[in-house]
Specification:
The complex is a heterodimer of chains A (416) and B (255). Chain A has 416 residues and is mainly beta. In chain A, 10% of the residues lie in helices and 37% in strands. Chain A has one domain: 3 Solenoid (Pectate Lyase C-like). In chain A, helix 2 links the parallel strand 1 and strand 2. Chain B has one domain. Chain B has twelve helices and no strands. In chain B, helix 3 packs antiparallel against helix 5. Chain B is globular and about 60 Å long. Chain B starts with a helix and ends with a helix. Classes of the chains: A mainly beta (416), B mainly alpha (255).
């Protein structure tokens, strides 16, 4: 037998196979279809079947998925939790939920009701759904290798104590969270004890507390996300080996709002991010061994607030442009390295034309220290007397930390 | 009155010092915007110009002009013209000419390079400071016939508004650091037109830094419609009060 005919016969064998048990079927749900309700279809389904749900409104209380099935919504069928139930609970591995409109989950101060909950499962995919007015949006507890992508979550919560997070991940591992848009929740994306996960290309805006809240989560990466106008910006705390690349942190305004709040972080990388119009671009406390390269700080109140409790932070090739204060600090101890950054307030010269200023730049202005100690003094900012004080301080540093300086300030901004 | 205003206005506009003032303002403004591709830094330089140079020039030039035109004023007084209208025309001429040259000197480059809200606020504040400091100069010069004393007084007043007042405020801020003085600071700032102008620009320029807790109090007051209206009213009082006071003195003055 020639090889081509053997392949043909194999193929024909494959076409003869339908009907043999184990092959996935397609079930349809909807008015006038095979099944009226999603729960009926789920009951009838075998593992690895696909359930196609036609457009319509489904009020079926709590839908529990206990078999590995794919649930596909056509034209965004509505799953209504009637403000009483958790809409969908996934209690099986390898479940796909795609293309639904999941609304009105229950609200409670005892139970964390969610639009979709993944309970202790692997390989679950939640994609392209619209979640509206859910208490918690998508909740992953002990989820492993799950994907949450392309969902739009919107809620209109008013009080921090009585609201839930958009994408809430707890004790999970190897998650991929990508292309989601979250707004109006308490925290946009919440990570607690989540490891080896990726948060990529999400937009988190107008959430009540943090755009991204990150606790005890090691070895994660978040990249190319936009965090805009959240109550308190983004908080990354008590974690190590976190990589933060190419994110936008914008317009996080308020006394306790930070573009990025870093607390007890170590061995991490912050590269290529853009901090734009925040009260404080980055606030660092108890941070060690962090490298910050090629970030842009623009039009912030404080570009960087670096507490004296930080050590071994390297800031290299960052741009500081039009910030009211470039760097603020609370003590005179400096264990960090600033080098080769561009500071638009630098007034030095470059005689040997190597594009590096010949005199060091001290980014902490005297007035930023005064304002740190006595916030109402902000009302005198940019007056003649404060400019004079800043000038004299530059000649003879007395209040500002002597060692906080950039010995090699760049003359031109870094091209990003 | 119109005739006198027209005469004084034309006289001042043709004055070499005013032409030089306009030219210098133009040169500085074009240079700061031309040097930097970052208009924010240019605006910062212009802010310093508006807060210190503009009041200084206005107050000193007006004082000297009033002393130099004392013979002309005496001549006018021999005519059947009210003292009030002579004094007010003198003011209108001075304020009009100086704010016009400010408008030309700073306004044109601003409109070319930076038409942001910050720029417009800066322009309006500069105009207001011009007319306020002309009015302060009227008050300084009406009190004494001695030119040197008059100029000295106007320089002292400028120094007070530009530097000493802020020093006192800073001192008070640290003395009362333990008390909630944020709201009181709002009231104190109304006592100095230069501070008021600076805060109005600050609210546009450093909005991110001002969104902090105490900054938010200033922002909540000055940033709202009500706050802007109140600030404008205070600025108007700063224009009218020294002028009316000087007018009262001029009316009763034995020339």
């Amino acid at each position: 037998m020639r090889p081509s005919t053997s392949i043909l016969s194999l193929l024909s064998l494959l076409f003869l196979l339908p009907g043999v048990s184990g092959h996935a079927r397609v079930l349809t749900t909807g008015r006038g279809q095979q099944f009226e309700k999603i729960t009926q279809a789920l009951q009838a389904a075998q593992p690895h079947d696909t359930i196609i749900v036609q457009a319509g409104t489904y009020k079926e209380g709590n839908i529990v998925i206990t078999k590995p099935v794919s649930l596909l919504g056509k034209n965004h069928p509505v799953i209504d939790g009637q403000k009483k139930f958790e809409n969908i609970s996934v209690k099986a591995d390898s479940v796909l939920i795609d293309g639904f409109r999941i609304i009105n989950s229950g609200t409670s101060s005892i139970v964390d009701y969610a639009g979709v909950r993944i309970c202790n499962r692997r390989y679950v995919t939640i994609s392209n759904n619209i979640l509206e007015d859910c208490f918690f949006g998508i909740y992953s507890q002990y989820g492993v290798n799950c994907t949450i992508s392309g969902n739009k979550l919107a809620a209109h919560q008013v009080e921090e104590q009585q609201s839930g997070n958009g994408i809430h991940c707890w004790k999970s591992d190897s998650l991929i969270i990508t292309g989601n848009t979250v707004s109006g929740h308490r925290d946009g994306i919440y990570f607690e004890f989540v490891t080896n996960s990726v948060i990529w290309r999400n937009i988190s805006h107008h959430n009540m507390r943090y755009g991204l809240h990150f606790m005890f989560s090691n070895s994660d990466m978040y990249a190319a996300n936009v965090f805009e106008n959240n109550g308190a910006g983004v908080a990354v705390m008590f974690s190590n080996h976190v990589k933060m690349f190419h994110n936008y942190f914008r317009e996080n305004w308020g006394d306790a709002a930070y573009g990025l709040l870093l607390k007890e972080i170590s061995d991490s990388y912050i590269d290529g991010n853009c901090f734009d119009r925040n009260t404080s671009g980055i606030f660092l406390e108890g941070v060690s061994r962090v490298e910050m390269y090629r970030n842009q700080f623009k039009e912030n109140g404080w570009g960087l607030k670096i507490q004296a409790s930080c050590m071994d932070i390297v800031l290299k090739e960052n741009n500081f442009i039009s910030n009211t204060f470039d760097v603020g600090t609370n003590g005179s101890l400096v264990l960090n390295t600033f080098t080769n950054n561009y500071w638009d307030k630098y007034e030095g010269y470059d005689l040997n034309r190597n594009k590096i200023g010949d005199v060091p730049y001290r980014p902490v202005s005297m007035y930023s220290i005064i304002v740190e100690k006595n916030p109402p003094a902000m009302i005198l900012f940019r007056s003649l007397i404060t400019s004079l004080m800043d000038r004299s301080e530059k000649v003879l540093p007395s209040l500002t930390p002597e060692n906080l300086k950039d010995p090699n300030p760049l003359m031109k901004p870094v091209k990003l | 009155m119109k005739k006198i205003i027209k005469y004084i206005l034309l006289d001042i506009v043709r004055n070499k010092i005013v032409i030089a003032y306009t030219g210098i303002l133009l040169a500085i403004s074009f240079t700061v915007f031309g040097l930097e591709d970052n208009t924010q830094k240019g605006l910062l330089t212009l802010l310093n110009l508006v807060l210190f140079i503009v009041p200084l020039v206005c107050v000193i030039f007006s004082t000297i002009y009033i002393y130099n035109s004392s013979e002309f004023v005496e001549l006018l007084l021999s005519q059947p013209i009210k003292r009030k209208s002579i004094w007010l025309s003198l003011y209108t001429g001075l304020a009009g000419a100086l704010s016009l040259s400010f408008l030309a000197g700073v306004g044109i480059p601003l409109l070319i390079y930076d038409r942001s809200a910050t720029g417009i606020t800066l322009l309006v504040m500069g105009m207001l400071l011009s007319i306020i400091f002309v009015s302060i100069a009227m008050l300084a010069s009406v009190g004494t016939r001695d030119k040197a004393r008059g100029i000295g007084l106007s320089i002292m007043l400028w120094l007070y508004f530009a530097l000493v007042f802020d020093g006192i405020v800073l001192f008070l801020l640290f003395q009362f650091a333990d008390y909630p003085i944020e709201k009181a600071m709002v009231g104190v700032s109304a006592l100095n037109p230069v501070d008021l102008a600076r805060i109005m620009v600050l609210l546009k320029m450093d909005v991110s830094a001002l969104m902090g807790y105490t900054g938010a109090i200033f922002k909540d007051f000055f940033g709202t419609q009500k706050g802007i209206v109140i600030s404008m009213v205070v600025m108007a009082i700063w224009t009218a009060a020294p002028l009316l006071l000087s007018l009262r003195k001029f009316n009763r003055k034995d020339l």
